[in-house]
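Chain A, query sequence.
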Amino acid sequence: MKIKNILLPFAAIAISGLSYSQTEDVSTYGAKELNWQRKNISGKIMGTNTQKAYDEIIQGQPAKKEIIVAVIDAGVDIYHEDLRDNIWVNKEEIKDNGIDDDGNGYIDDVNGWNFLGNSEGENIDVTTLEKTRIHQTLAPRFEGMREANVAAEDKEDYALFKKLDREITDKVKAAEKAYKEAKKGYENISKAYKNLAKMSGTKIATYEDVVNLNPSSKEEKKLQKQLVLVGKFGYTKKEMNEYMEYSENEKDAYYNTSFDPRKDIIGDDLNDINDRGYGNPDVIGPDAFHGTFCAGLIGASIDNNLGIDGIANNVLIMPIRTVPNGDEYDKDVALAIRYAVDNGANIINMSFGKSYSPNKTMVDEAFAYAESKGVLLVHAAGNDNKNIDFEDNFPNDNLAAGGKVGNLICVGASSLSTKKRIPADFSNFGNENVDIFAPGQDVVSTTTESKYDISQGTSFSAPVVSGIAALVWSYYPELTVAQLKEVIIQSATPLGKKKVVVPGTKSKKRFSELSVSDGVVNTYNAFILADAMLKK
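Chain A, predicted structure.
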């Protein structure tokens, strides 16, 4: 996130975050954005041909199987008006009786499980990044030590410690500066809102109030125009406040080497997969925005005259809270995958990722377990506009012990554009480790308290693919997990020869250099290929 000065009555911060302004309903979004991830390919929209599959293939035919999609994320609002009818229920568990009725090791897990809490109902919200945790582990061995005094067998660990030490120091300094600038921007924008309110005699508390104002003087019109202009770039009170919070989390939590909420709230051994007596049934948690957004793209109720339409029409969402505000813990990811598999999930959506994975073997073994049980894994490629064929991004299908698992699909983000900007500018890519692209820019979905939002990220491309996979599998349950993965990848809209702008750069390459499939996910083509594969 870079600082940017603008020639207006205030300084503001250029924010590259994922979320834009929240709204009570979807009426403020244009017809172009609403449900575009389901739309057919046209001259202006690189859709997924999902509607074409519904209109020409499904045509009201009942699915053969109900598909359960586990959403391993920050939490899901299971009471959302557009989701509550499609939330998985553990029918063998009795709610709030304090007993593990089904004997699966998790008490009262009626709708899923929360791996970020304890039995007293306390939950981890904000935590450190993985690089900070590694620094915390190495510090007792190397803090203050000179390289000349480091034993030969410790040289590699020492080099990593020094590298992380420099990175963390730089990040904290940058966060402190960003916080001050964001605070200044917030204060100046707040002052401008107050000035506009005073001029107009109207309450101006939000950006929407600014937009909806009917100015009665030239001064009001001029200030409104300025505020609307910068608001379009995210310079609003809400965005400035969010950036302050983000910068504060960076300096006080993400990169704070003395911060360890895990120890205080859970107190488990992160290196022992069998130390699993923690968690609680609170699948919503303190901040369920991200997981609720993902869940809506997969399975928001269709044709109910509310909000948005999910991709799949015969799906249940299994919420598993595993992703804090900060980096997820490898152990929790591994246990969450095993929980999903053991409780009947067919597909697991994983919209998270990080650059370090100290307990990768735990996750690898969980991946292999899911593969052995015929469960598909769908993972977001990440938002660092980098080539993950050459830079680490975890989790991934490359096993630490060698070889690969065959049940994971890694998803990059595409935009509405049918031209050279098809790959979203923030998306990671790689023609070996990114399998396919899917809509992930300017998509509208469900958020907490029965609201809706517009957002972007590969986090939201992954659930589009999860939803399409669930839809196809519900009509062709005979497909193996390997066949389903092949169907999704091989049926992509072919764009391999098309020259597009490489994310994060100004240069162009053929789309074939950005992913395995050389294209964007295509629901209609997937149905055709699935049918042909089974007939063959």
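DSSP finds 13 helices and 15 strands in the chain. Residues 1-24 have pLDDT under 50 and may be disordered.
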